[in-house]
């Protein structure tokens, strides 16, 4: 099963992907996480991507296309993949289609998390994660059960992404509208697009996506 989660920054793609990968045995591939790992290791790609990511702009297509090729053909991707944050441009979507076709595969479903873009800056600016296990939290919507202690691993250190600042979040939302939203008609015309209300409660969004995946 090959699934793409689509939606603007803050729509909940990462949160949903983390939940769904376990229940459906899918390999979760977040290109944002992969790029952040490149930045953290100061690799040549990371060095090139760092300033672009800090500005909230998109990293060049070819870097992403090359980055996704290898992990999607590893044995742990055999049961399926859940792409989160890729593709983000029509050029990336076309390259993904060509790559899968070359392997005799295709995308099964593209799930669009439909959200109110105006609410996203607040969602993005309030989010943070456990430094140890990466469990996600939010200043108002999703606090740890005990203040300052991670529900999942008991860790007490938390981190915020540098590109989650309100100004950068706005640039990222603009990049989504300009460069990523054209993927909606692209996938709709191919008959693989499904919409899910991303403003519903987290559990409800997971349940609705799960229903779509069972039918895929
Ligand atoms: P994310 O964690 O998905 O919000 O991605 C964080 C940042 O990484 C984005 O704002 C972009 O700068 C970069 N990035 C992640 N995925 C892609 C992609 N598919 N194409 C271009 N840039 C990307």
Task: List the topology elements.
Layout: E1 2-6, H1 13-24, E2 27-30, H2 31-40, H3 44-55, H4 61-69, E3 81-84, H5 90-102, E4 109-114, H6 117-125, E5 127-130, E6 136-138, E7 158-159, H7 166-180, H8 183-188, E8 193-197, H9 202-215
Parallel strand pairs: 1-3, 1-4, 2-3, 4-8
Antiparallel strand pairs: 5-6, 5-7
Helix pairs in contact: 1-9, 2-3, 4-5, 6-7
Bound molecules: adenosine monophosphate.
Residues 9, 31-32, 35, 52-53, 56-59, 64, 85-88, 92, 163, 172 line the site of adenosine monophosphate.
H/E series: EHEHHHEHEHEEEHHEH
Small-molecule binders here are:
adenosine monophosphate
Number of helices: 9
Say how many strands there are: 8
Sheet of most strands: 5 strands, parallel
Mean pLDDT: 95
**Net shape:** globular
Cα end-to-end separation: 8 Å
Low-confidence stretches: none
The helical percent reads 40-55%
Indicate the structural class.
alpha/beta
How is this structure best described in words?
With 216 residues, this protein is of the alpha/beta class. The protein contains 9 helices and 8 strands. A 5-stranded parallel sheet has the order 2-3-1-4-8. A 3-stranded antiparallel sheet has the order 6-5-7. Strand 5 (127-130) and strand 6 (136-138) form a beta hairpin. Helix 6 crosses helix 7. The longest helix is centred in the last third of the chain and has 15 residues, at 166-180. The protein is globular. The mean pLDDT is 95. Bound molecules: adenosine monophosphate. Adenosine monophosphate (AMP) is lined by residues 9, 31-32, 35, 52-53, 56-59, 64, 85-88, 92, 163, 172. Residues 9, 31-32, 35, 52-53, 56-59, 64, 85-88, 92, 163, 172 line the site of adenosine monophosphate (AMP).
């Amino acid at each position: 099963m090959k699934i793409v989660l689509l939606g603007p920054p803050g729509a909940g793609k990462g949160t949903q992907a983390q939940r769904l990968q376990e229940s459906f045995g899918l390999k979760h591939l977040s290109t944002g996480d992969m790029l952040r790992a490149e930045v953290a290791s100061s690799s040549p790609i990371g060095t090139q991507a760092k300033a672009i990511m800090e500005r909230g702009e998109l990293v060049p297509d070819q870097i992403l296309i090359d980055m996704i090729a290898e992990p999607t053909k590893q044995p742990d991707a055999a049961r399926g993949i859940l792409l989160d944050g890729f593709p983000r441009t029509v050029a990336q979507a076309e390259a993904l289609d060509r790559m899968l076709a070359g392997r005799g595969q295709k995308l099964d479903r593209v799930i669009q998390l439909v959200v109110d873009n105006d609410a996203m800056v607040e969602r993005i600016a309030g989010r943070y994660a456990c430094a140890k296990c990466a469990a996600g939290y939010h200043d108002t919507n999703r606090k740890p059960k005990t203040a300052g202690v991670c529900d999942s691993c008991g860790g007490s250190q938390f981190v915020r992404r540098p590109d989650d600042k309100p100004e950068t979040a706005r640039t990222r939302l603009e990049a989504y509208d300009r460069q990523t939203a054209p993927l909606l008609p692209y996938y709709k015309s191919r008959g693989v697009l499904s919409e899910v209300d991303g403003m519903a409660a987290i559990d409800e969004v997971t349940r609705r996506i799960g229903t779509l995946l069972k039918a895929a």
